[in-house]
Amino acid sequence: MYKEQIESIKPEFEKALNYVTQKLMSVRTGRANPALVENTLVDVFGSKMPLKQLAAISIAQPKKLRVEPWDKSYIEPIARAIQANTALSPVTDSNGVWISMPELTEDVRKDMIRMVGQIDDGAKKTIRKYRDETWSAIQKLEKEGQISEDNKFKAKDELQKVVDSYNQKIDELVKNKKKELEA
Predict the structure, then answer these.
(1) For the segment 111-125, what is each residue's pLDDT rounded down to a tens digit?
(2) What angle do CA 8, 17, 24 make, to 5 degrees?
(3) Alpha carbon distance 50, 152 (integer Å)
(4) Is the pLDDT confidence value at 179 over 90?
(5) How far apart are CA 63 and CA 79, in angstroms?
(6) Cβ atoms of 63 and 31 closer than 8 Å
(7) What is the mean pLDDT of residues 16-31?
């Protein structure tokens, strides 16, 4: 009975893990990464669309991104959107947009590390919230007589193992991003 409670929470933990992964990908480290601009909204034909739906984004050099739109008329709107929504300076040519990654100053690096810490805290708060909700549901099952007290404590141990597993995955992602920022 309690195993269903624990299994039902895993998708929420996966969402938290995916959120951390996506957020960390968008943190600028000084190296070119398409995730920095792929979700930038570009105003084309009166509607806003993510850049990844309008162009191919590739890493041309370690510190340069190349954006090649499917339609050449998108070049200027893409450059304007990148300039307006990121701290990056795009340069256009006849076939697309070049984006150079500036060196990170020490202050920017510290801010990025602080942002990574905030992402980490937010994900862990979410995991704690779902853990607490599941634990409350398990305690309710025990009060209603659907599971024994022994099973309640087994459930608590299993729940904590799952929580620890996801926290460890998040810690690993955060540690790697901080190491990348400090390099």
Answers:
(1) 888 889 999 999 999
(2) 165
(3) 47
(4) no
(5) 17
(6) yes
(7) 82
- Nearest CA among 7, 29, 33 for reference residue 116: 29
pLDDT higher than 80, residue 152: yes
| Vertex 81 angle, CA 28 and 86, to 5° | 20
- Looking at this protein, which amino acid is placed at residue 41? L
Whole-Å CA distances, 74 to 17, 27, 46, 65, 147: 34, 25, 12, 17, 61
Burial (Cβ within 10 Å: 0-12, 13-18, ≥19) of residue 115: middle
List CB contacts of 93: < 8 A, sequence separation 6 or more: none
- With a CB cutoff of 8 Å and minimum separation 6, the contacts of 7 are none
Would you call 178 exposed, middle or buried from its count of C-beta atoms within 10 A (0-12, 13-18, 19+)? middle
Tokens of residue 68, six digits: 């090649």
- What domains can you pick out in the chain, each with its CATH number? 2-26+105-182 (1.10.132.20), 34-100 (3.30.1360.40)
| Six token digits for residue 22 | 């996506």
DSSP state of 146: S
Whether the CB-CB separation of 88 and 150 falls below 8 Å is answered with no
pLDDT at residue 180, as a whole number: 82
Phi, psi of 99 (to 5 degrees): -130, 115
